[in-house]
């Protein structure tokens, strides 16, 4: 069984937002909404400060509160790759999942259902990378299967320091940020 994950090298990200534009185009995201976004965070202690630039999105958590709280089963874990998805037709727009997600990764689509990153599963199932990964001009994002020790994501995590966002929430995020 595959376990899809994304590994992002924050040292290579230049904050160009190409990933955000690519996602909006690929997934036809309406004006005023985004499935991914850029965070700039100052890290370190003065005078040794540096800026971490992160491309963020749903973390496709291994322990996803958004799935557990959903009253209709619209939010679910896909049977391939552990990707967290939403079945729009089952969603009643109650916003329980929006409140449960510690990452503010979801929004209510103007058509009335919860929406968020899908890891571009429609592309992945065709053997393609997610749109954000495919367009990044600095190649700072890598997508793949953590269950395969020979995959690029497995090798990167084995060889570089990395962190996840808000690990203390216990969600077990599957987007990893590599640091120097
Ligand atoms: Fe960073 Fe790549 Fe996104 Fe540009 S496209 S903001 S370099 S992750
Ligand atoms: Fe759910 Fe939020 Fe985790 Fe995505 S980041 S799987 S929406 S809890
Ligand atoms: Fe489930 Fe939709 Fe309610 Fe979210 S808004 S908890 S996906 S029914």
Describe the structure.
The protein has 180 residues and is an alpha+beta fold. It has one domain: Alpha-Beta Plaits. Helices cover 20% and strands 26% of the residues. The chain has 6 helices and 10 strands, in the order E-H-E-E-H-E-E-H-E-E-H-H-E-H-E-E. A 4-stranded mixed beta sheet has the order 8-1-10-9, covered by helices on one side. A two-stranded antiparallel ribbon has the order 2-3. A two-stranded antiparallel sheet has the order 4-5. Strand 2 and strand 3 form a beta hairpin. It is globular, with a radius of gyration of 16 Å. The chain starts with a strand and ends with a strand. 33% of the residues are buried. The mean pLDDT is 97. The structure holds iron/sulfur cluster (3 copies). One iron/sulfur cluster binds next to helix 3.
């Amino acid at each position: 069984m595959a376990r899809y994950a994304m590994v992002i090298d924050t040292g290579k990200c230049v904050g160009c937002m190409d990933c955000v534009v690519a996602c909006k185009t690929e997934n036809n995201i309406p004006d005023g909404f985004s499935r991914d976004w850029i965070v700039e965070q100052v890290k370190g202690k003065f005078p040794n400060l540096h800026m971490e630039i992160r491309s963020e999105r749903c973390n496709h958590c291994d322990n996803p509160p958004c799935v557990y709280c959903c009253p209709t089963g619209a939010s679910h874990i896909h049977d391939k790759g552990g990707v967290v998805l939403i079945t729009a037709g089952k969603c009643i727009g109650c916003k329980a999942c929006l409140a449960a997600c510690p990452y503010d990764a979801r929004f209510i689509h103007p058509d009335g259902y919860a929406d968020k990153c899908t890891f571009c599963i429609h592309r992945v199932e065709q053997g393609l990378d997610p749109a954000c990964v495919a367009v990044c001009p600095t190649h700072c994002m890598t997508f793949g299967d953590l269950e395969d020790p020979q995959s690029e994501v497995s090798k990167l995590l084995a060889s570089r320091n990395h962190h996840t966002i808000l690990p203390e929430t216990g969600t077990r995020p599957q987007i990893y940020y590599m640091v120097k």
